[in-house]
UniProtKB/TrEMBL annotation:
<dbReference type="GO" id="GO:0003924">
    <property type="term" value="F:GTPase activity"/>
</dbReference>
<dbReference type="InterPro" id="IPR016478">
    <property type="entry name" value="GTPase_MTG1"/>
</dbReference>
<feature type="domain" description="CP-type G">
    <location>
        <begin position="8"/>
        <end position="165"/>
    </location>
</feature>
<feature type="binding site">
    <location>
        <position position="161"/>
    </location>
    <ligand>
        <name>GTP</name>
    </ligand>
</feature>
<dbReference type="GO" id="GO:0005737">
    <property type="term" value="C:cytoplasm"/>
</dbReference>
<dbReference type="InterPro" id="IPR027417">
    <property type="entry name" value="P-loop_NTPase"/>
</dbReference>
<dbReference type="GO" id="GO:0005525">
    <property type="term" value="F:GTP binding"/>
</dbReference>
<feature type="binding site">
    <location>
        <begin position="55"/>
        <end position="58"/>
    </location>
    <ligand>
        <name>GTP</name>
    </ligand>
</feature>
<dbReference type="InterPro" id="IPR006073">
    <property type="entry name" value="GTP-bd"/>
</dbReference>
<keyword id="KW-0963">Cytoplasm</keyword>
<dbReference type="GO" id="GO:0006412">
    <property type="term" value="P:translation"/>
</dbReference>
<dbReference type="InterPro" id="IPR023179">
    <property type="entry name" value="GTP-bd_ortho_bundle_sf"/>
</dbReference>
<keyword id="KW-0547">Nucleotide-binding</keyword>
<protein>
    <recommendedName>
        <fullName>Ribosome biogenesis GTPase A</fullName>
    </recommendedName>
</protein>
<dbReference type="InterPro" id="IPR019991">
    <property type="entry name" value="GTP-bd_ribosome_bgen"/>
</dbReference>
<dbReference type="Pfam" id="PF01926">
    <property type="entry name" value="MMR_HSR1"/>
</dbReference>
<keyword id="KW-0342">GTP-binding</keyword>
Length: 275
């Protein structure tokens, strides 16, 4: 399992400061709404009000993603859908989230968490602006934790570091690579591309067709990416498609949602769903 020291540090910071908030705002990628959830969320956040923001809703397959939304709502989560890059995040928070945060001592306090590239940085940086951030001096709060004042009552805590899902199988790692949440190491990019090709060929062939003419009819990901490289004029000597450049470009465009809507998982694929 990929579990570096900085994630352990983030977990400690959350455990030290969770008592200061009444809600947790968790961001997930709408294309992988289960695989992109923060590591050990259940034990870390315990009895806090849980709000999940399905970001990148504009590039998911909505009907598939709605199945996850229904599951989380049935478990008591507050779920909101959005594309953070296309809205005023502060207004979105005031209108859709603030009133969901339980009020204590005339304040609403929430902690924001999320894996890399699900939108946490976009969310936090937009709220910070130029003059909205102050270093927390609340008793019992770790030095360096920042409170972001959204309005006169609402404060958001941004803890340092990141959380990651538990990488207990390869398919989760591949989905994180395809969503841009995890950097591929060594041959993982190849494995992720083969995973994507096989999945899309069976479940969403139009994505392959958007990349390469008759792409869904090709035998495997290697053949597909070579054709993709040739189409983009990524050529080596002799007119051979530059596989590595094609691979990198195709994975980036998949991650950015440039080739069409994708959702990589549905609840039916899991024997057990931890919520």
């Amino acid at each position: 399992m990929w579990y570096p020291g900085h994630i352990a540090k983030t977990k400690r910071a959350i455990k030290d400061n969770i008592k200061a908030v009444s809600a947790v705002i968790e961001l997930v990628d709408s294309r992988i709404p289960y695989s992109s959830r923060a590591y050990e969320y259940a034990s870390l956040f315990r009895d806090k009000k849980k709000i999940i923001i399905f970001n990148k809703y504009d590039i998911c397959e909505i009907e598939k993603t709605k199945k996850w939304i229904k599951i989380y709502e049935n478990k008591g989560y507050i779920v909101k859908t959005v594309s953070l890059k296309s809205i005023n995040i502060k207004n979105f928070l005031k209108k859709n989230i603030a009133n969901e945060i339980p009020e204590k001592f005339n304040e609403r306090r929430a902690l924001v968490v999320g894996a890399p590239n699900v939108g946490k940085s976009t969310f936090i940086n937009s709220l910070k602006g130029k003059k909205t951030t102050s270093v927390g001096n609340t008793p019992g709060i770790t030095r360096g934790v920042q409170w972001i004042n959204v309005d006169s009552k609402t404060k958001i805590m941004d803890t340092p570091g990141i959380l990651f899902p538990e990488l207990y199988n390869k398919s989760i790692a591949y989905k994180l690579i395809l969503a841009g949440c995890l950097k591929a190491e060594d041959d993982e990019a190849d494995d992720a591309a083969f995973f994507a090709f096989d999945y899309l060929k069976e479940n969403n062939p139009k994505i392959l067709e958007n990349s390469v003419e008759n792409g869904s009819k090709l035998e495997n990901a290697y053949e597909f990416i070579e054709n993709f490289a040739k189409k983009r004029n990524f050529l080596k000597k002799g007119g051979i498609g530059d596989y590595q450049r094609g691979l990198k470009t195709w994975l980036k465009e998949i991650s950015d949602g440039k080739l069409g809507r994708i959702t990589y998982e549905i609840p039916d694929e899991y024997e057990e769903i931890k919520v």
